[in-house]
Write a structure and sequence with these properties.
By secondary structure, the protein is mostly helical. Helix content is 81%, strand content 0%. Bound molecules: MU-OXO-diiron (FEO).
Length: 190
């Protein structure tokens, strides 16, 4: 969501809340026994819950089905998902840019560290699709660096878009390519 879109949606929510408050006051002019103002109060109370549900959809949770059956790799994946959530939280609460940069740098660094560790294990296990897998890692790092530059330098990408790319890529990669090496690596590394 771009800053402009976010600003527009916040404006719409504010107008909605204001309109509800006015309608509640007018509704009570119909009498305290009239159901309309009470229904409107219920709608008003529900807004924060609906908002929280929409926001929580941006976050990612670990599921056992993501496991590749190797503890060190699973721990790396869990840590990366946690860091992506941290980035989403910082973006959502408009944390200062320096803190966002720190989280982002940490995430990119740990992703590279994880890829290096995983590639080492694949090499040791003589995994036959090693080259293809390594190529996917390299393409991802190159894409992330491009997006980070677009966020940092050009301002054409928002931090939410960068976090969304990282989240989608990582989940798809863990459930696709990483699962494929599991039978080869498990024997040697468990
Ligand atoms: Fe866990 Fe291939 O990255």
């Amino acid at each position: 969501m771009s800053t402009l879109t976010k600003g527009i949606s916040m404006f719409i929510v504010s107008v909605l809340i204001l309109a509800l408050l006015v309608m509640i006051v007018l509704g009570f002019m119909l009498g305290f026994g009239h159901p309309l103002p009470w229904v409107l109060i219920a709608v008003l109370v529900a807004i924060p819950f609906i908002h929280d549900r929409i926001v929580s959809r941006r976050f990612v949770e670990w599921h056992d089905s993501y496991s590749v059956g190797i503890d060190t790799i699973d721990d790396d994946h869990k840590k990366l998902l946690g860091m992506i959530n941290q980035l989403q939280t910082a973006a959502h609460y408009k944390t200062d840019k320096t803190s966002i940069e720190e989280i982002l740098n940490g995430l990119v660094d740990y992703t590279q560290y994880h890829f290096t560790r995983e590639e080492g294990m694949m090499r040791e296990s003589e995994y036959p699709d090693f080259d293809e897998h390594k190529k996917q890692h390299e393409e991802m790092i190159s894409q992330v660096n491009k997006f980070v530059d677009e966020y940092r330098i050009d301002g054409t990408k928002t931090i939410e878009e960068v976090a969304m790319y990282l989240k989608t890529w990582l989940i798809n990669h863990i459930n696709g390519s990483d699962q494929k090496y599991a039978p080869y690596l498990k024997e040697k590394h468990n």
